[in-house]
Write a structure and sequence with these properties.
Elements (H helix, E strand, L loop, with lengths): L12 H13 L2 H33 L12 H37 L4 H4 L9 H8 L7 H15 L14 E3 L5 E3 L7 H16 L12
Antiparallel strand pairs: 1-2
Helix pairs in contact: 2-3, 3-5, 3-6, 3-7
Amino acid sequence: MSEALDGDQRVDWNSVHRTNFESAAFSPNKWIQNAAGLFESAKLLEPKIQEVWEYWRARSQGQSTTHVADHFLGTYFMLMSFCVENLLKAACVQNNGLTYKRDFRSCLSADKKSSQCFPSELKTHDLFKLSLVAGLALQDGEEDLLRRLSRCAEWAGRYPSPLRYEEMSGAEKFSDGEEYSLSWFGGGDVARLNDFIRSLPPRLGLHTRHWELRKE
């Protein structure tokens, strides 16, 4: 056996993994880096999304056109929703990271599983609720955008159905008390979503010096 693994030289890998975990989970920069990767990946799909919109526009105008499959639509909005989610969680960590780390360590010391100790705010895919935790002041129409993106993040971008059949209706009650449909995206949502994501770092006070959002 190697000398490095003998006696007092033995590595406490559990401690190493926990330290690495804390460095990733409670660093806003790590969340921002993930957001960057998701954004850049989604951008590769945008030409395909535009083809789908053009096909539907032509069909709606009665024009004869070659069929374009919408294989990429759900995936595109799912990736963009995850990008928004990571930016919002970056803000949560930037604002509350020390508390998250302290509570995480305290929970572990009580012999609970690490999954039980992870901050509940960082587990959710509900972008509207997450925006409230992150302190984002929403502008007109952004609640609607966040709720539609949440549906893609939670199931519609990756599974054929949700866990609860009631969610198939695609209707949800908004903060104004009214119910609206979430089961749609329109031709203007790509540009709108790009603008929204670009607006998030300054609105959330995030430092994105290592990731310059591309300009169109």
